[in-house]
């Protein structure tokens, strides 16, 4: 089926001409009085206007967060969990509305937002509602009279900066653990995707106590910096590229606060020859596993953007994959048959085109794609790029730099040792995929690849409960696991003596 | 803190006239030079980030790729090697700057265009 675009009759999504910041439980106009148009990447036409806030708006959001945090942090875990579960229920109840809004603003196909982004966001709140209820403090008996109590306490007010590729899901990844642990937050959405999070606030804003969650939109150089440098935050969480990640660490160092960073990758997806040992469901699954590079139009930090295929099955296996890639349906992101929508912005699609050009000039062979497709009608000006495969070798630039689009760089390897060498020959270490029917081999490879997540005989699954984060320059800290509660908590130790005798030193 | 100039690297970045105008305007607005840091990875990866001069703390692993109109252009040395020591052309285009980067003017952003190796050789 096809959904009608937001704002049109029959669409599940209403659109106001202009949106405001969400601060202290209310919609507040930016103090700057300025707004920016927010474009739909499928049509290159404006959806609505979004605040172009300034540093003063960050201060207002921090005022609201600080006035709310203490009561929220003192609420029982049962009360906080009940709120998070209500947030999850509200997301589920508005699944279609949020999925369509997310697709229209980001360009990702609605089949993905309906099946993954929105249900996973809801599940994330439920997971942390459960985790905080089950969280226990610890007691250590140092000796018979001396007891160490360890309590978890909220950090306070935190700053969270969200990327454009999964605006709602990445927000949920960061919000759920922060709120569960008793923190209040000021959240800055990505500049290309400011709107769907405001639609989420329409859905869940009344559930949370005013000030616990605040959303401010505007330029990174103005409000991102004002948030990350602010002395009134106790932590910064960021997903994005390496330079901003380093800058955030630098600001955090000046304020002596912790950071969580997720900074991208160039993830290898490794196919050993035994995947083709039988023409069965597993082989079919492996073929799909390679084609998953086009998931979310390749705008995924963990995109399996380097395929490493054992040389003796390369021709046969790649032929199957190319057939599957040629069958990818591209177009209207609100059509449930569409598998790939437009890139998020004009600058992204132009960047992708320039990388393909660089790859071809470096001597890579174009196996499929390589152009901006002609998609007519209302999508004629959309930021589409064909699913593309380049064959080359790992020293080429298109194997080393994250393209953030539907471009796969493929190469071959002789044996396990060479596969491992190529896999680890990258600055990044976020994700990896290993495909083989030999579990001994998948285990050895999984342990030896220097990446935080090694999908084994699967890819692009993001369940709450499996820790996600990077090795090397891909970041610091983990998400999507209850250990995130530690990332958002202080440890309070009470060291208590129950004895009555003096030490005898003075 | 280091701004080492490796032999042969200075001059590996040039600017278009539009970028030159944007840099001149930014320097005037900030009362001094701005700085560029070539990024990598994730959403805004491979964007040249533009900051007020001295804003970004450089480390021993960073290199000075070049100086454009009095403004330094830096990059992580490992990234520079991984990308095959590219020649950068700093340009501007319509769009929103990534990360915390300064805009290149109203509605404009900086972008680096890269000459591919075969172009470099010729």
Number of helices of chain B: 3
Strand content of chain A: 15-25%
Subunit organisation of the chains: heterodimer
From the alpha-carbon coordinates, what is the Rg of chain A to the nearest angstrom? 24 Å
The averaged pLDDT of chain A comes out at 97
Q: Distance between the terminal alpha carbons of chain A, to the nearest Å?
A: 82 Å
Shape of chain B: globular
Going by helix content, strand content and strand pairing, the class of chain B is alpha/beta
* Measured distance between first and last alpha carbons of chain B: 36 Å
The strands making up the biggest β-sheet of chain B line up spatially as 3-2-5-4
Strands of chain A, count:
22
**Gyration radius of chain B, to the nearest Å?**
13 Å
| Poorly predicted segments of chain B | 1-8, 117-122
Largest sheet of chain A: 7 strands, mixed
Indicate the percent of residues in helices of chain A.
25-40%
Series of secondary-structure elements of chain B, N-terminal to C-terminal? EHEEEEHEEH
Mean pLDDT of chain B: 85
Strand arrangement within the widest β-sheet of chain A reads: 14-15-16-13-12-18-19
Structure keywords:
heterodimer, A: 506 residues, alpha/beta, 7-stranded mixed beta sheet, 6-stranded mixed beta sheet, 15 helices, globular, B: 122 residues, 4-stranded mixed beta sheet, 3-stranded mixed beta sheet, 7 strands, disordered N terminus
Can you walk me through this structure?
The complex is a heterodimer of chains A (506) and B (122). With 506 residues, chain A is of the alpha/beta class. Chain A is built from 15 helices and 22 strands. Chain A has helices spanning 55-74, 77-93, 95-106, 110-134, 167-180, 195-204, 220-228, 242-255, 281-291, 314-326, 346-361, 397-400, 416-424, 439-448, 484-487, and strands at 21-23, 26-28, 35-40, 45-51, 138-141, 146-154, 157-161, 184-188, 213-215, 236-239, 259-262, 268-271, 306-310, 365-368, 388-391, 407-413, 428-429, 431-435, 453-456, 471-472, 475-476, 489-497. In chain A, the strands form six sheets. A seven-stranded mixed beta sheet of chain A has the order 14-15-16-13-12-18-19, with helices on both faces. A six-stranded mixed beta sheet of chain A has the order 9-8-7-10-11-21, sandwiched between helices. In chain A, strands 5-6-22 form a three-stranded antiparallel beta sheet. In chain A, a hairpin with a 4-residue loop joins strand 5 (138-141) and strand 6. The longest helix of chain A has 25 residues, at 110-134. Chain B contains three helices and seven strands. In chain B, the strands form two sheets. Chain B has a four-stranded mixed beta sheet with strand order 3-2-5-4. Chain B is globular and about 35 Å long. The interface between A and B is large, with 51 and 42 residues.
